[in-house]
Amino acid sequence: MKETIESQNADDYGELLVSVVILGQKFETIADLDEALRIKPDDVNAYLIRGMQRRDFDRQYESAIVDFDEALRIKPDFAEAYYERGLTKRNLGRYESELTSIQ
Length: 103
Fold this sequence. Notes:
This protein is mainly alpha-helical. The protein has one domain: Serine Threonine Protein Phosphatase 5, Tetratricopeptide repeat, CATH 1.25.40.10. Helices cover 70% and strands 0% of the residues. The longest helix has 14 residues, at 61-74. The protein starts with 9 loop residues before the first helix and ends with a helix.
C-alpha cells in the first residue's frame, strides 16, 4: 500500500482502507491513513478507521480517543464515532465520562 495517493482518488483509497480494517488485517494502515488525512484533513471516516486501528491492533486507546474526538469535532452527529469512542473508553474503565458526553 505504499502507492502515492492523489487527491482525486482519496475516496477510493478510503474505501480500500475500510476493507482492510473489516478484514481484520493490519498492513501499513496508520501511515496510509495519515497520508489520506494529509490530503483530505476533514475525512471523518479516516479518523474513525485510524482510531479503530489504533485501538484494536495497537492498543493505543488514548490516541484512538483523540481520533474519535476529531471526527466528532468535524461532524458532531457522527454516531459511529460516539459508539467507537464509547467502546474505547470502556476498555479504559471510563464509563461515566462517555455517558456524560453523549447526553
